[in-house]
Amino acid sequence: MRRVLLVILLLSIASAATFKNKLDYSKKRSITSVMAEVEAKIQTKAPLDAILNVLRDFRDSVNFEQVNHDEIYQIQVRECESEDEFRSKEVQDAKNILRDSTAQLNVCQTSKIRATNQQEVNQHQTFTAEKHLNMVMTAAEQEASYFKKRGRDYEDALHAIDEASDILAAIYSGSGSFAEISRVSKVMLQTSFSIKETAKFAPILYAFSQLASSKDFDETSLERVAQLLDTLKQNIHEAYNDYAESNAQSIAAFNDQKERIGQTLARLAAQAERLQDKLDHLVQCIGTNSAIAQTASGKLQRNQQLWDQATALCATFQNEYNFATQARRNELQLVSQLEEMVEDRFGQVEDENHERKLRLSQN
């Protein structure tokens, strides 16, 4: 049974010897050579201690190698733990930076889209306000030109009324003629159309036509016509003043509207400036966080690869240590088996010698 176990151990050690261990710091040794040396000493009837010393030397060599390997292994374990801690921190830092920069990048990109839309709305509102202001300015210019022309028409009407009064006074004094009345009546009729006050001019024009067709008139008739002229002049003055007041109100309304549109344009201009500043900031934010995210991604990939390589290498160290340690245990077990076998054999030899001596003594 011991011999079967010995064969199994020999096969195990032989297979371990074929494994190229990077941490094998011992000189080359062979259990087969040790067994041959033990066998030779037995054949030459060497003392038991000499044979056991060969096995003890082999055991000490194995133990010495294991101690050295344990020291190297502990250094490797500390290095692997340090590398694992360092790479873990680097990977986590890169993940955190990548997460935060990506989140900020998304916020900046979304804000940029919103700000761009607001800018487009601002530009449309500015275009609409400028168009409205141009329309208001054009209307104001047209209205000012119309008022100027209409004012001249009112002045012409008042001038015609004054001229008619003068002619009527001349006729009253005997120096005037009805031909002048006919001429000024035509002027008054034209100005009544221009200022759209024909209803107010109708009584005096009718009175003038009556005077022109009548061959016989008195002072009372002339006074009545003069009174009509005074009333007409007063009415036209009031109409002119009302028109001027209406125009003043229109100008005030125009100025108010112009001011409000100007305020709107100023607000839109300030908003446009703020939006442009915001867009510039967001573009810079997108560029900065894109660069940060790209750098963090590269750092993450690089450190993850180094971490994986270190983990694989440390696993290799562990496997090599376990394999070599088990091989040395097998060697030590085999040495123990050899020691027992040698001691048993020496015991058998002593028994045989003792029996031989007994037989010789009995003969």
Automatic annotation (TrEMBL):
Domain of life: Eukaryota
Record flagged with keyword Coiled coil: yes
Signal peptide (residue range): 1-16
Keyword annotations from UniProtKB, A to Z: Coiled coil, Signal
Coiled-coil region: 222-285
Protein name (record): Trichocyst matrix protein
Organism of provenance: Paramecium sonneborni
